[in-house]
């Protein structure tokens, strides 16, 4: 069992104008002070604009490793967004948990809430726009450093300084990195057996189950 990991910061943000006034987004998130209510659809005070692709029970909370910020400085330089938490629209920032060590279906105690890893993040063009046109989206896919989402199994509250503690790991062979590689980064082309085996991971979010089926041609 892995050691509990402290939360460095929690971020929330409202929906606001993004690229155009009629293209709103909730990607701009800033640190919040004190405890935050964790409910079935995420953190209190956090919003998503396009609910067809963002938010919902399977993508209630986005966790992005703050470990990766050093990597991004090598890729895009000292962008001012990297000087603060929430540069990539994440709700949770930590050190020590990455896509290589977190697995689909992992259950964690998060403050007084219980959350479960449902899928990796599938990055989009909004990251490029947020970073002033830099190719963040493509580089995130290539580097497989996209973070992951939680569904909330038990509501509660959490704050910066609280711990994220692993409770259960039913699929230790299915790291977020491996799953992301198969479903987003093109690894399915060389690993159809892996794509087939992914069907046994019951905790995988429905959109990624559908993506798997599409890649299998079923």
Can you walk me through this structure?
Strand 6 and strand 7 (42-43) form a beta hairpin. The model has no long low-confidence stretch (mean pLDDT 95). A nine-stranded mixed beta sheet has the order 1-14-10-11-12-8-9-2-5. A three-stranded antiparallel beta sheet has the order 7-6-13, with no helix packed on it. Strands 3-4 form a two-stranded antiparallel ribbon. It is an alpha+beta fold and 218 residues long. It has one domain: PK beta-barrel domain-like (M1 Pyruvate Kinase, Domain 3, Beta Barrel), CATH 2.40.33. Helix content is 22%, strand content 25%. The chain is globular. It has helices spanning 69-76, 125-130, 136-143, 176-183, 192-197, 206-216; strands spanning 5-6, 9-12, 16-17, 24-25, 30-31, 36-39, 42-43, 61-65, 92-94, 107-110, 113-120, 148-154, 156-158, 163-168. Residues 30-167 form the MOSC domain. InterPro entries: Benzoxazolinone_Detox_Enz, MoCF_Sase_C, Pyrv_Knase-like_insert_dom_sf. It comes from Novosphingobium indicum. This is MOSC domain-containing protein. Pfam families: MOSC.
